[in-house]
Design brief:
Elements (H helix, E strand, L loop, with lengths): L12 E4 L1 E3 L5 H6 L5 E3 L7 E3 H13 L6 E4 L7 H12 L6 E3 L7 H6 L9 H7 L8 H16 L1
Parallel strand pairs: 1-5, 2-4, 3-6
Helix pairs in contact: 3-6
């Protein structure tokens, strides 16, 4: 489909990975008792910190390229349970127990979310836009969020 060629408006497609940031992350879920460590071997998801997503969007708007597809993700797809365990470590908490996917009590929507891995590379996007992500993986992103939340609590 090449409808962007018939338009005077610049059209781009942004494929956005799971987005996290202040108030919406595994640290928050752990504190609220909502975090689950679902274990499905081989399962990985791409993520992106909201600040890096905004940087990609701003760079793309500053340098229009009609019809371009931008993948918006960090550089480190990871299993969801690993992210929860790392977030728990940042908080000094024991991670919730791992639950095998086959026996996990999940809604139909949640179960469909785990139906396949969602791994995407943003290497081309970053190279095209000349960007270096502030948070190249969830590890840096969650650590920064934990520091910010600790400052806010003081």
């Amino acid at each position: 489909m090449h409808c962007h060629r018939k338009s005077t408006v610049t059209v781009n497609l942004f494929r956005i990975a799971g987005t996290y940031g202040p108030g919406r992350n595994q640290l928050t879920a752990l504190r609220a008792g909502r975090a689950k460590r679902i274990d499905k071997p081989g399962q990985v998801f791409s993520r992106i910190h909201v600040e890096d997503l905004v940087a990609i969007l701003r760079a793309a708007l500053a340098h229009p390229s009609p019809g371009r597809v931008y993948n918006c993700a960090d550089e480190a797809p990871a299993p969801p349970g690993e992210v929860v365990a790392d977030a728990a470590e940042l908080l000094g908490m024991a991670p919730p127990p791992a639950i095998p996917f086959a026996t996990a009590e999940l809604s139909a929507m949640a179960r469909s979310f785990y139906a396949e891995s969602k791994r995407v590379s943003s290497a081309e996007t970053r190279a095209t836009l000349g960007l270096t992500l502030r948070y190249p993986s969830y590890r840096e992103g969650l650590a920064a969020l934990a520091r910010e939340e600790a400052k806010a609590e003081r």
